[in-house]
């Protein structure tokens, strides 16, 4: 776990990196405070009761006076978009305007059958008039659900055998070339980012745009995005979030923070760039679905048993053992649509008996 303290940085460099168009109108995120009403000394969360303070006071002096119970804060990136994961929305925050500046017509990317990344790309591109093409690993499921259903509704889905999927770059290039056709062009996102950075430094317009009157039937311009949007531009949206959270009326820059975030490939954690604790889990354990149900009933916040529940548990334990001058902040990255696929895979764990609300 990293203890996060503010260190002086090159403000001009940060401002230059963040001086761009963004997909999100604002970096704002709702912040909740979770009170732990009956903390356990053994650190187990089974019998812990939570209460959600939906409009917490973040003023440090007032907060200390009212701190009768341990608590932690949740940054609600899960509320950024109804169908796009919070961490995916942050990754695409700087990426999508680049596609628009380049005047792209099509986007090709890949992921697993229940990929939150491909679903996010499909929805975000379709909202902007771009055609998303999604290469999904494995076979089509009998029942479309969760992220797979969203990807299918919004994008052009092709299922790829695992043997071919193993050679991702070759697979993506071949499919992008087939989409572009004889008169189209293919470019990788990293190449667009490099050209954009050079033009930004010289003050030139990023890319020349086709005149829709003179060129009504323009050639296809296909952009290839790596699996998981792991390109460097994906970090900028998370850096923008940190700049927002570091404002004085929120968490500021002078107090120490422990930031907890769940992570898969780690792009979001790297983007935080604050030494946060990064957890990645891939299996459901007995009792975890019931724990998710309890949290949802007590706080109105839905977490999933793969990723965000792990972050929630760590935040709970840290807040019970934290020094008074240190806050615990959990970044809720979303992921709740993945519950649908999990319910099919782990059916026995989702047979929850009806119980009274506690």
List the helices and strands and how they pair.
Elements (H helix, E strand, L loop, with lengths): L10 H8 L12 E6 L13 E4 L6 H6 L5 E6 L9 H8 L1 H7 L4 E6 L4 H12 L3 E7 L8 H9 L1 E5 L1 H4 L2 H13 L4 E4 H14 L18 E4 L9 H12 L10 E7 L4 H6 L4 E3 L8 H12 L8 H13 L5 E7 L5 H8 L13
Parallel strand pairs: 3-11, 4-5, 4-8, 5-6, 7-8, 9-10, 9-11
Antiparallel strand pairs: 1-2, 1-3
Helix pairs in contact: 3-10, 5-6
Gyration radius from CA atoms, angstroms: 22 Å
Query: How does the major sheet shape up?
Result: 6 strands, mixed
**Percent helix range:** 25-40%
Low-confidence runs of at least 5 consecutive residues: 1-8, 201-205, 210-216, 273-282
The average pLDDT value, as a whole number, equals 80
The CATH architecture of the largest domain can be named as 3-Layer(aba) Sandwich
Envelope shape: flat
Order of helices and strands: HEEHEHHEHEHEHHEHEHEHEHHEH
CATH topology of the largest domain: Rossmann fold
The proportion of strand residues reads 15-25%
Query: How far apart are the first and last residues' alpha carbons, in Å?
Result: 32 Å
**In CATH, what is the class of the largest domain?**
Alpha Beta
Task: Give the strand order of the largest sheet, numbering strands 1, 2, ... along the chain.
Answer: 2-1-3-11-9-10
Number of strands: 11
Number of helices: 14
What oligomeric state is this? single chain
Which class best fits the helix and strand makeup? alpha/beta
Please indicate the count of domains.
2
Keywords: Pyridoxal phosphate
Organism: Sesamum indicum
InterPro entries: ACCD_DCysDesulf, TrpB-like_PALP_sf
Cofactor: pyridoxal 5'-phosphate
